[in-house]
From TrEMBL:
<protein>
    <submittedName>
        <fullName>Uncharacterized conserved protein</fullName>
    </submittedName>
</protein>
<feature type="domain" description="CENP-V/GFA">
    <location>
        <begin position="2"/>
        <end position="110"/>
    </location>
</feature>
<dbReference type="GO" id="GO:0016846">
    <property type="term" value="F:carbon-sulfur lyase activity"/>
</dbReference>
<dbReference type="GO" id="GO:0046872">
    <property type="term" value="F:metal ion binding"/>
</dbReference>
<keyword id="KW-0862">Zinc</keyword>
<comment type="similarity">
    <text>Belongs to the Gfa family.</text>
</comment>
<dbReference type="InterPro" id="IPR006913">
    <property type="entry name" value="CENP-V/GFA"/>
</dbReference>
<dbReference type="InterPro" id="IPR052355">
    <property type="entry name" value="CENP-V-like"/>
</dbReference>
<keyword id="KW-0479">Metal-binding</keyword>
<dbReference type="InterPro" id="IPR011057">
    <property type="entry name" value="Mss4-like_sf"/>
</dbReference>
<dbReference type="Pfam" id="PF04828">
    <property type="entry name" value="GFA"/>
</dbReference>
Amino acid sequence: MLNGSCHCGTLRWYYAAAPEAATACNCTICRRYGALWIYGFDGKEVTTEGDSAAYIRGNHIAFHFCPNCGCACFMQGLRKEPDGSRRMAVNLRMAGDPDAVQSIPLRGFDGLNRFEPLPDEGRCVADIWA
């Protein structure tokens, strides 16, 4: 299990699976947050603790951050899946143990122009944690 928190520890996330990859998106908000996302579903792979504030983008996604220290910790889809679950992603940059996530493959996503995956460059999280 992976876990992470905001800087002050008020907001926490837990990821109960082995992530296939971390996503580095270049859209306007992910670029500003500097986030690396790993995806799952609320209550399945992803659970959270603590009070958060949220920035709702459009009518489909909420970015949750700590109201105390401001760290962007996770995002949650606003639309429910057919089984009632919600798609979520946690920000891997908030990981409690950076060593535990260094070998996770890194995948680029063009969320700015084409909204599609970028070619695989064979990098992992450690390659950008200089």
